[in-house]
Specification:
Blueprint lengths: L3 H21 L2 H12 L11 H4 L3 H5 L1 E3 L14 E5 L10 E6 L2 E4 L7 E3 L2 H6 L8 E6 L8 E7 L3 E4 L9 E3 L1 E3 L11 E8 L8 E8 L3 E10 L4 E11 L6 E8 L1 E3 L14 E2 L3 E5 L6 E5 L7 E8 L3 E5 L20 E7 L4 E8 L10 E7 L8 E11 L10 E9 L12 E8 L13 E6 L3 E11 L4 E10 L5 E9 L2 E2 L3 E6 L2 H9 L2
Length: 516
């Protein structure tokens, strides 16, 4: 017979063993899964039944998850998890696991958690269908309301919002060969592990396993909802094949038309876009660079060289309702997304992909960071970054910002008298410009590459908008796109970010032509 002390010790160990199991699940376990998977041949996930894949948008939307069935509903934690049904463009199920004091266990599919508007459809749903993803909720607006703040569903896509935002821009775990003629590859998150938060936690920890024909990966997310929703991301990648164009921390958004393009025929709204530009903070030079985006006539890819990039993002700078006049979509409340790098990412380039679209239903703008080194089969790579969704305060940018870009012909009244030229207007505001007198000696520094000639440049203060306005008259010198760069300065010191623009005919008329 065991002594009383030994019996008590055995009892304590048995009671604590579930906690030990839960604590033993670490990121290293997902890394090892990804490493092992990379050594095996790729096997595409089995798609869900055809009748689900063929559901149209409205029929799929009528499959509704019951909020009362949310994971962790009734606990003292503020976090809950709503589950996403497969169907329509969510063509594959993923594995979802929960980590809590009892250890790690799968979240089993239960179709009773959903309301189906169609009884015939409900009868066809397999008992072991699985979930396509999940929605994380937290009381952002009021203590008694669970607000969705991040959604993981579809390949490696996930969307986030800050307090008061409307969903718009998406992030991805990884982009592979985006924009190349060889065709894009879409690696997918195939398994998730969600740590059940304690009552006093204001963040949630989760892990994801990524798999694709050319690459596998292990991801750790620490996600904190709030005015800004922030996700600290650690990614460990393993390459099955050589990759021509790897995109780290990719962002995907929509730009149909805006102030710098023509309005499509028949459109009454002034602008339609989730994002209106790409912002880059280059660590090597310290420069902040702004590039307005467009809806081009043909695919466009732009490359911005960086050394130890500090951050990049697709931003929505237009924040006034009258700039969109859309009471339903509320593009003025769509979040920006900013990637802040952790550690030295080395040499590489931020890649901007602009894809033609005929309407606002397609995400046609992609931005990501590409490492300089070639990526070969058998290699591994790790990176860390913080991804933020929200409207204000995403960056610590000290310089004044370009708040509007307008483009027109340079051979008409108000534009100039130069045949074949273009008039470009760029408004700057904020930062060091805020404290200047309207008569301050602010000047411009505008240059073009050999494909474009800067004929005229001047700066003036525009009182009705409280902006400093740069006016450029430029003329293309060849059929190749002309690249313009400009910033405002005073006493030899830069006051603004560097505005850059690719001048080509479809930057003026492309959106109108695309609408026909």
């Amino acid at each position: 017979m065991l002594p009383i002390f030994a019996l008590l010790l055995v009892l304590v160990v048995s009671l604590l063993s579930p906690l030990v199991d839960a604590a033993a699940f670490e990121f290293a376990a997902v890394v090892e899964k990804a490493r092992t998977l990379a050594a095996e041949s790729y096997k595409a996930p089995t798609p869900v039944p055809e009748f689900l894949r063929e559901l149209d948008y409205d029929d799929y939307r009528n499959i509704r998850f019951k909020p009362d069935a949310s994971l962790w509903r009734g606990s003292e934690s503020g976090f809950e998890v709503m589950l996403v049904a497969p169907g329509s463009f969510y063509k594959r199920a993923v594995k979802i696991n929960e980590i809590d004091a009892d250890g790690v266990r799968p979240v089993e599919f239960d179709k009773s958690k959903f309301d189906f508007s169609n009884d015939s459809l409900a009868r066809q749903i397999p008992a072991d269908l699985g979930y396509a993803g999940f929605k994380l909720t937290y009381p952002l607006e009021a203590p008694e309301v669970q607000n969705q703040f991040m959604v993981f569903a579809g390949a490696s896509y996930f969307r986030g919002v800050g307090q008061g935002d409307h969903f718009g821009i998406s992030a991805r775990g990884l982009a592979v060969n985006t924009g190349l003629r060889s065709g894009e590859e879409f690696p997918a998150f195939v398994e998730f592990w969600l740590e059940r938060p304690s009552p006093d936690q204001d963040s949630i920890v989760m892990y994801a396993l990524l798999d694709g024909p050319s690459v596998t990966g292990a991801y750790r997310f620490v996600i904190s909802p709030g005015k800004l929703t922030e996700a600290d991301v650690t990614a460990q990648l393993f390459f099955r094949k050589d990759i021509e164009l790897l995109g780290l921390a990719p962002l995907t958004s929509m730009f149909y038309y805006g102030e710098n393009t023509a309005r499509p025929v028949g459109e009454w709204r002034p602008q339609v876009h989730d994002s209106d530009g790409l912002l880059i903070h280059n660590g090597g030079s310290g420069e902040w660079l702004w590039r307005p985006v467009i809806n081009p006539e043909s695919l466009r890819m732009s490359y911005f060289q960086t050394s130890n990039v500090q951050g990049f993002g697709l931003m929505q700078r237009d924040r006034n309702f009258h700039q969109f006049e859309d009471a339903e979509a509320r593009y003025d409340n769509r979040p920006s997304a900013w990637v802040e790098t952790v550690g030295d990412w080395g040499k590489g380039e931020v890649v901007l992909v602009e894809i033609p679209t005929r309407d606002e239903s397609n995400d046609n703008i992609v931005a990501f960071w590409r490492p300089e080194e070639d990526l070969k089969a058998g290699q591994a790579m790790s990176r860390q970054y913080r991804l933020s969704f929200g409207r204000e305060g995403l960056t610590d940018q000290p310089s004044a910002r370009a708040t509007g870009t307008f483009v027109g012909h340079g051979n008409r009244l108000g534009g100039g008298a130069e045949e074949g030229a273009y008039r470009l207007i760029v408004d700057f505001k904020g930062g060091p410009l805020s404290g200047l007198n309207s008569s301050a000696a602010v000047v411009s520094n505008a240059t073009g590459n050999e494909q474009v000639d800067v004929l005229e440049q001047y700066v003036e203060y525009v009182e009705p908008k409280n902006v400093w306005r740069l006016s450029l008259l430029v003329r293309p010198e060849s059929e190749a796109p002309g690249i313009l760069r400009a910033f405002l300065e005073a006493n030899g010191k830069a006051l603004t970010e560097t505005w850059t623009y690719e001048l080509s005919p479809d930057r003026i008329s492309g959106a109108a032509k695309n609408s026909r």
